[in-house]
Amino acid sequence: MMMVSDDCLVECKIDDSDEEQISTPPPPPPPEFASKASTPTPKPPTPPAEPTPSTPSTPPCPINRDPFGINKHLKVEVSDVLAEPTTPYSIDAVWIYSLVGFEKTRIWTYRCLSLLFAVPLAFLCGFILALLACLRVWFLVPCVQLSNTFLPCLRSVFICAVNVFVAPFCMSLALCCSQISILLSNKDFIHKREKDTV
């Protein structure tokens, strides 16, 4: 018969009160009595399907419209443009209204300009990118592949033509010109310098 040691016993508090108790998971069994299979964790209670009318609805998270940080340099804050030193500063209301005016002007000007130009420029950029892709797929890549296919044949024909026609002519001309020599003496140099000075 096997005796159970006091280390393996778990103490449980018993509460006889009528209050609602929050269900807590039972403590894990001692290692000697733990099974090898993992026990499933209890599911948390499901939240109510509809928000209660007393809690205000939270705005949805904004969509990241620049996930790769292409326009990271355009994140301009007011402090990047407007700054006052500590000693000569304007009235607080003037400073606050100028900051608000700067922000609102920047935001609404951008919104109005994007309302006017965003859709046409998006169409133009899409058209240009589609045109470039089409030219690359249907013109540039086939021309490069065809040239890679036919250039070795043309290279061998060109090398034969150069070796048969151009190389003998150039060698003959080189042999004819190899016998020409030019000698300069000091007398010619002095005579030339005298002509230049006159």
UniProtKB/TrEMBL annotation:
Q: Which residues form the signal peptide?
A: none
Instruction: Report TM segments.
Output: 113-141, 161-184
What Pfam families does the record point to? Caveolin
This protein's UniProt keywords: Cell membrane, Golgi apparatus, Membrane, Transmembrane, Transmembrane helix
Q: What Gene Ontology terms describe where this protein resides (cellular component)? A: caveola; focal adhesion; Golgi membrane; sarcolemma
User: What is this protein's record name?
Assistant: Caveolin
Name the membrane topology term. Peripheral membrane protein
Subcellular location(s): the record lists: Cell membrane; Golgi apparatus membrane; Membrane, Caveola
Q: Which family does it belong to?
A: Belongs to the caveolin family.
**Cross-referenced InterPro entries:** Caveolin
**GO terms for biological process?**
caveola assembly; cell differentiation; regulation of cytosolic calcium ion concentration
Q: What does this protein do?
A: May act as a scaffolding protein within caveolar membranes. Interacts directly with G-protein alpha subunits and can functionally regulate their activity.
Recorded coiled-coil stretches:
none
- For this UniProt entry, what is the primary localization, expressed as one broad class? membrane
